Amino acid sequence: MEALTVIRSMIPFVFLIQVWVLAADPYTDALLGLKSEIQDPSNSLSDWIAGSRQSSSFRIGACTWSGIYCTNNSSKLLRLDLSRKNLFGTISGKYIGAFSDLVDLNLSHNSFTGRLPQEIFNLTNLKILDISRNNFSDSFPKGIAAVHQLTVLDGFSNSFSGPLPSEIARLDSLQVLNLAGSYFDGPIPKEYGGFKSLEFLHLAGNSLGGQIPKELGNLQTVEHMEIGYNYYSGSVPPELGNMSNLQYLDIAQANLSGPVPDRLSNLSRLESLFLFRNQLSRSIPASLGSIKSLVNLDLSDNLLTGPIPTSFANLKNLRLLSLMYNYMDGPVPEGIAQLPLLDSLLIWNNFFSGPLPQNLGKNSRLKSVDVSTNNFTGSVPPGICAGGQLSKLMLFSNHFKDGLSALSNCSSLVRLRVEDNSFVDSFPLKFSLLSDIQYVDMSRNMFTGGIPGEISQAVNLQYFNVSSNPNLGGSVPPGIWSLPHLRNFSASSCNISGYLPLFGSCNSVSVIELGENRLSGVIPEHVSSCRDLERLDLAHNTLTGSIPTELANLPRLSNVDLSHNKLTGPMLSSFGNSSRLTLLNVSFNNISGSIPSEQIFLTMGPNAFIGNPLLCGAPLKPCLKIVPQVAGFRVGNRSSGKLAWALSLCSGIVLIMIIAAVFLHKRSQLQWKVVHFSGLPQFKAKDILRSLSYSKPTETEAPSSKLLRKAVLPTGITVAVRKIEWDEKQREVMLEHISRIGNARHRNLIRLLGFCGNNPGGYLLYDYLSNGNLTEKMRTNGGSRLGNWEAKYKVVDGIVRGLCYLHHDCHPPIPHGDLRADNIVFDEAMDPHLAEFGMKHPALMYGTVLPRTFNILNKGETDMGVEKEMSRDIFCLGELLLEVLTNGRLQNSGELLQSEAQESILREVYNENAGGCNDAEKEEIKLVLEVALLCTRSSQSDRPSMDDVLKLLSGNTRLFL
Question: Locate the Protein kinase domain: which residues (predicted)?
Answer without folding.
Answer: 683-961
